[in-house]
Amino acid sequence: MKLPTRRMVLAVCxxxxxxxxxxxxxxxxxxxxxxxxxxPSLSTNDFLPLSRSDEKTxxxxxxxxxVLRVKRIVDRSEVLGDRxxxxxxxxxxxxxxxxxxxxxxxxxxxxxxxxASKDVEGDDSFAFLAQPGGTWGAxxxxxxxxxxxxxxxxxxMRHQQINTWxxxxxxxxxxxxxxxxxxxxxxxxxxxxxxxxxxxLHPLHSTAVSSRLDRIAGIAKDEDDEWVxxxxxxxxVFYEEPHPTGYSYDQLQFVPPGEILIFxxxxxxxxxxxxxxxxRNGEMKTLDGIPEGYRYYSRDGRRLLILRGEPGRGPTRAxxxxxxxxxxxxxxxxxxxxxxxxxxxxxxxxxxxxALQVRNGFRNPPTTRxxxxxxxxxxxxxxxxxxxxxxLHFAGKVLFVGYQKHPNxxxxxxxxEIQAYDCSW
Length: 425
Fold this sequence. Notes:
This protein has a domain at 24-86 and 315-425. The chain has helices at residues 6-19, 140-143; strands at 31-36, 39-45, 67-75, 78-80, 83-85, 88-96, 111-112, 128-130, 149-151, 162-167, 173-178, 182-186, 196-200, 204-209, 215-222, 225-232, 237-240, 247-255, 260-267, 273-278, 283-286, 293-297, 303-310, 314-322, 330-337, 342-347, 353-359, 368-374, 379-387, 392-395, 398-401, 417-422. It is mostly beta strands. The strands form nine sheets. Strands 2-1-32-31-30 form a five-stranded antiparallel beta sheet, with no helix packed on it. A four-stranded antiparallel beta sheet has the order 10-11-12-13, with no helix packed on it.
């Protein structure tokens, strides 16, 4: 048998290369930072001015965020005699970034998560809440050299737990959600500290802030009943659902720019339904065509992504809707089946790009992959095939992996790395 010559082998190889589908080059991060303890260190930064014209350039306009929030879990659980006393706490620290992608500080300052102002879309500010005479009040002077500090004099409420607090963009108003009530403060009042302007005698959960940063909504609770309530930042209630309602509520969010509230409600013993509340007239509408699942809106409010679940597996499928009319969202043809559980997602500002974080089966330790889709949910790229970072967030055309503003699902993790990818095409 005659063996093939070297020329014949090369010709066959060349033919295989010509006929093979083009190999898609994986996207590299344009910015990345690693966190070790209190020390952040840049490993990639394409936002710096480049000297070589043949190098790739980062999106125009500079780094798209001024602050990223870094998390860490602190485990102070202990064994007392024959009892195990769990004590696991979440702390956060602001990571300030310059427009050229460089870091403003070489060390992070962590504070309890409930003492940091709520991280909301459209507002990158970070502020710390201090109570005079409280545990953190004594350290406020040192903290004020790192980031803004707001003092609240709660007097008799001093021993109540602060669940969350929300700061208006100009810092003049504060809403503090406590265990038993919600306070609205004038944060620019004279010393010794601001006094409550308005008191709402119910705690709130699932708080949301409109994209125009002028409205707050939440689920109020009283004994066994819940209802929807919406405020302006001066504490005035401009909508309160008649109660008792007989429902439980979840996944409350404003549809940009903030005239419509979307939430899930469930009657006792009944099925969950998605409901739209028109804050202009107080009318509610059940969204019959919207499936149950986590919802993600584009910043312009015109696209809605929903992660659909399966019993016992969590969400595994993504579907896209035209939400130009938020009271009547219409399904679009695109859909994406991940095959594995989808942990979280993000939608770009105009809905032209979608990112999914998908669990890689049941590997130990658990890892995920990050898939980039277009606005019709066609796969464009796999940005990361295996990572332990959790969280997705779009800022313009830049996708951050390892950081998330969207409240659902809650990601209770320690931040070890954050990467940014240019998702323009």
